[in-house]
Write a structure and sequence with these properties.
By secondary structure, the chain is an all-alpha fold. The protein has 2 domains: 18-312, Zincin-like metallopeptidase, N-terminal domain (Lysin, Up-down Bundle), CATH 1.20.150; 446-514, no CATH class. It has helices at residues 18-27, 36-43, 49-56, 59-64, 73-85, 94-111, 129-162, 165-172, 177-200, 223-229, 237-257, 259-274, 280-289, 295-303, 313-340, 347-360, 363-372, 381-402, 413-417, 422-444, 447-452, 458-466, 472-477; strands spanning 125-126, 220-221.
Length: 514
């Protein structure tokens, strides 16, 4: 049977081009060529013949054209768009755009009396899944690039070691095995990353679902996914949309008015990812079981995180800090949303659904986590929400929100363990800091020096040395008292005495020496 992606010329003795022959041996298939369905299995793609035929038209360019770096980001982008568009991704209608904009405006109004941060004044956006991919792909690249580059290189090395010599010879005919293998590793990881991002586009309902502003601070909802969120809840779709609009607006308001927060979160993720060092021994062990002619073995290795190294203690500590910040963000949003949406009949049920969704994540999020080695889960969301609620009662809205002004002011993991003790611990810290500030201010203003100039200071030393009590006139005029024992040095060990001419040692201007 003729493979449409590799048509036969009817002559079995006619040699195939080198790329077709190499791919045929790597991915299976008989004399008629390699089987596209095998590549579909390797990439986690649907085995639709038409879609695969279209993809096969890009295979030669994918493996032969150089990418921008170790990872083929163009392949990741195209794959994410392809997955997002599968299973029906209808364009957003004008009615849906108006409905989303009105929901987000109403959400902003509900939030105004509940937070010290003013409205952002943004227009609400309604996105399709493909539009969400376009809006967020640059952030996904930033989050995954450090670890993605390492894994792509490791994949290239594994493939190089496992390929038979005849395949390497064929690749040499096509521009050299080194560049070819680098493109293979980068393309394979790019496809996997695109698959994960595309799958996430079917789950998210807005631009801040994972607790990080993926779309550069833009406020948006995905109508198709909002409708899917409410399936089985027996709650009117408009009520579901309003509740999710409040969550989205609260997220964006926080990130907009706290400039350091976005950089803090993204920077923490980047530092964690850069700390991942590929365990080559682990990869070599895995390579013994990976068959380069069986793409399912590579697919299984990636999906199970075989290439992920063990976390170091430093990374574990960094992850705790990151998860604490994520929990504080989600807890703050959860608390504000509950108060703002209190008039919605099903607000309590929707709050519980949203909490469980964020705390556990779905299959797409787990697949992404196994791919890059990082799970953005606010595991302590409920503890954080309880803490923010308590702080609202104790400090008021303004005092609660003031804690976001600097990362050092935020509650810690210890505070999530004991929310009731946060205020007392903070008072002790603030009291200690106030004492230090007061002492520093006194020092800078000369307060300690004034105290030293009293009789208990320098003049008292002279009195103790020669038995003469300085008169008030002497003290006021700055004239030192003259010892009755003229010409002798008291030598009392404090460095103050009179020399042979009756002056105080080292003070030709008449001031006492300290």
């Amino acid at each position: 049977m003729t493979n449409p992606s590799n048509p036969s010329n009817g002559d079995d003795d006619t040699p195939q081009d080198p790329l077709s022959e190499m791919l045929s041996k790597m991915f299976g298939g008989g004399a008629g060529g390699f089987d596209p369905q095998e590549i579909a299995k390797a990439a986690g793609l649907p085995s639709d013949p038409a879609a695969m035929a279209m993809m096969m038209q890009q295979v030669q360019a994918m493996f032969s054209a150089p990418s921008e770096g170790p990872v083929n980001w163009q392949m990741a982008h195209e794959q994410a768009r392809r997955v997002a568009a599968s299973d029906n991704d209808p364009s957003v209608t004008s009615l849906q755009r108006r409905s989303v904009d009105e929901s987000l405006k109403l959400a902003e109004m509900w939030l105004d009396p509940l937070t010290d941060f003013p409205s952002t004044g943004q227009l609400g956006r309604a996105w399709s899944r493909a539009e969400w991919v376009e809006a967020t792909m640059s952030t996904w690249r930033r989050l995954t690039e450090p670890v993605a580059s390492s894994i792509a290189k490791a994949l290239s090395d594994v493939i190089s070691e496992q390929l038979p010599e005849e395949m390497k010879s064929m690749m040499g005919m096509m521009g050299g095995p080194a560049s070819m293998l680098q493109n293979v590793g980068g393309a394979m990881f790019g496809m996997q990353l695109g698959q994960a991002v595309g799958a996430l586009s079917k789950d998210v309902v807005g631009s801040t679902d994972i607790g990080v502003p993926l779309a550069d601070g833009r406020m948006a909802l995905l109508p198709a996914n909002v409708a899917a969120f409410g399936v089985g809840l027996d709650i009117p779709e408009q009520e579901v949309q309003l509740f999710l609009a409040v969550r989205e607006a609260a997220h964006v308001r926080l990130f907009t008015h706290i400039p350091w927060l976005t950089g803090h979160l993204l920077g923490s993720i980047e530092r964690y990812a850069r700390g991942i060092h590929i365990d080559m021994d682990k990869i070599e062990d895995a390579a013994r079981d990976i068959d380069p002619t069986n793409p399912e073995s590579l697919q299984g290795a990636l999906s199970q995180g075989v290439f992920m190294p063990e976390r170091t203690p430093e990374q574990d500590a960094a992850l705790v800090r990151l998860e604490t910040t994520l929990a504080l963000v989600e807890g703050w949003v959860d608390e504000l949303t509950a108060a703002a949406a209190a008039n919605l009949p099903s607000a309590g049920a929707l709050r519980e659904v949203a909490r469980r969704r964020r705390a556990t994540g779905g299959p797409a999020e787990h697949a992404f986590a196994s791919l890059v080695g990082l799970e953005l889960r606010p595991r302590r969301l409920r503890d954080a929400a309880a803490l923010w609620s308590l702080l609202s009662e104790e400090r008021g809205i303004k005092g609660r929100d003031a804690l976001w002004q600097h990362p050092d002011l935020l509650p810690t993991a210890e505070d999530l363990d004991d929310p009731a003790g946060f205020s007392e611990r903070r008072r002790l810290i603030e009291s200690s800091g106030a004492d230090v500030d007061a002492a520093l201010e006194r020092l800078l203003s000369g307060g300690f020096e004034e105290k030293d100039e009293e009789p208990t200071g320098g003049d008292a030393a002279v009195e103790a040395a020669d038995g003469t009590t300085p008169s008030k006139a002497d003290t006021d005029s700055g004239t030192p008292p003259v010892s009755t024992d003229e010409g002798s040095d008291t030598g009392d060990g404090d460095g103050v005495g009179t020399d042979t001419d009756g002056d105080v040692d080292g003070n030709l201007d008449g001031d006492t020496k300290r």
